[in-house]
Specification:
Blueprint lengths: L1 H23 L22 H26 L3 H18 L9 H10 L7 H17 L2 H5 L2 H8 L9 H7 L2 H14 L5 H4 L4 H5 L4 H14 L5 H5 L3 H10 L27 E2 L10 H28 L1 H4 L4 H11 L10 H9 L3 H36 L10 E2 L19
Antiparallel strand pairs: 1-2
């Protein structure tokens, strides 16, 4: 009996020894017979996380300097050189990542997916610019955003767009924000990152259509200043809201405005509000009546938008790979024999049943239906508020930057002859 116990212990020891050797070396060393010796693997130090925290510190420094140059120092030159540094560091050196604009998707996915946890650095990149904007205006756009810096440095001869066109195009960022949140919340895609027109330039590596898109934005930006920032950026929507309530903000003049009008054409972004005309305040009764009508129509706009979004969910949900694959296999069963379709072949090799795939697709489509109501209702609210804003009367006696649309670039300050 003791003999068998000893044999068992020896056998167990051999098994654990072989298991330990297998963990240390999964595959046998190659035997080339040429004097080759396998190098000893060295585990690299985890520098990525340290670099991310370094980025957060640099972001704080850049935002602090941008706010100082815009509000305290009133230096356009300081903001300009700061944007050059941002473009080189956050753009070309860090390849446009981590990105405050793209972090919207990480936040949305964290809220709606319990299995996903956003990293601390990504959350900080999302929150810090918003906090600075709430206190100092859009100084993030002025000197800390590499996408804005690239466009700002390439402005050659900016054109002033009609107000109706600016207002209409200004709705697009809200739509882009809605779709980005919807796609991220359903786990479909991060469309902000996928269709970033400048990240391919920063990384010197992009698909052909994205290269064309980036070049198109650059060429357009020479004459229509900051087209991405003004008419597409979803993060700009949040910055616009925060900036409207900013405690301090860049001002054209450091003292009382003398109505010299020299600053009127200085802003390439049409973000300077002019003094109101006395004629606008004469027929106030008609304006009040229109305001009440437009305000009462806002719930209708919300319902129309939500209804349209819910009806579009079937089409939009096809962007999700699970929904797309389920519909493809149902409508075209012969695609199972297509060896070139990697998505289909990966599904077939997974052993997942068609019933399971359809159930997963149905759940995702239901999420799109609910999200379509919310996103559509949000867009209806945006349209209703935009229309309402056209009849709101705001009396202004001086030239002043629009707190929501101003990028705090500081161009207008150099035109003002008033000294501090």
């Amino acid at each position: 009996m003791k003999k068998w116990i000893k044999v068992s212990l020896i056998f167990t020891f051999l098994i654990f020894s072989l298991a330990g050797m297998a963990q240390q070396q999964r595959f046998p060393k190659p035997e080339f017979g040429t004097g080759y010796s396998q190098p000893t693997p060295i585990t690299p130090e985890p520098r990525a996380l340290a670099l991310e925290y370094t980025d957060v510190v640099i972001l704080l420094i850049v935002l602090s300097l941008a706010s100082y140059f815009a509000i305290r120092k009133r230096s356009r030159k300081g903001i300009l050189w700061l944007s050059v540094f941002t473009l080189l560091y956050f753009g070309f050196y860090r390849n446009g990542c981590i990105c405050s604009i793209g972090s919207i998707q990480n936040v949305a996915l964290t809220i709606f997916d319990p299995g996903y946890a956003i990293s601390i650095t990504t959350l900080l990149f999302f929150l810090i610019p918003l906090i600075f904007t709430l206190y100092f205006g859009r100084t993030f756009c002025a000197g800390a955003c590499p996408l804005g810096a690239m466009q700002d440095l390439l402005i050659i001869k900016p054109l002033s767009l009609p107000e109706w066109l600016r207002t209409t195009l200004g709705i697009i960022p809200y739509l882009y924000l809605s779709l980005a949140v919807l796609f991220a919340a359903t786990g479909t895609d991060f469309i902000i990152c996928r269709y970033d027109p400048f990240v391919g330039i920063f990384r010197m590596d992009a698909e052909f259509h994205m290269v064309i898109l980036g070049i198109a934005f650059i060429l357009m930006g020479m004459f229509v200043a900051r087209p991405y920032c003004r008419f597409l950026c979803p993060y700009g929507v949040l910055l616009n809201w925060m900036s409207r309530f900013s405690k301090w903000h860049l001002s054209i003049t450091p003292a009382a405005c003398i109505q010299c009008k020299l600053c009127s054409d200085s802003c390439p972004f049409d973000a300077i509000d002019f003094p109101t005309d006395e004629k606008q305040s004469k027929n106030r009764t008609w304006g009040v009546n229109r305001f009440l009508v437009y305000a009462l129509l806002i719930p209708l706009w919300i319902f129309i938008g939500g209804f349209a979004g819910s009806k579009a969910h079937t089409w939009i949900s096809k962007a999700n790979p699970t929904v797309y694959l389920a519909e493809l296999l149902i409508s075209k069963p012969e695609v199972r024999n297509d060896l070139k379709n990697l998505d289909v072949q990966a599904y077939l090799s997974s052993g997942k049943s068609m019933e399971t795939l359809v159930k997963e697709a149905t759940v995702i489509r239901q999420k799109f239906y609910t999200g379509g109501w919310i996103a559509g209702g949000f867009m209806g609210l945006v349209i209703g508020m935009t229309v309402l804003g056209q009849v709101v009367y705001r009396k202004r006696t001086d030239y002043q930057p629009h707190k929501g649309n101003c990028y705090s670039c500081g161009r207008c300050m150099s035109y003002c002859p008033v000294k501090k």
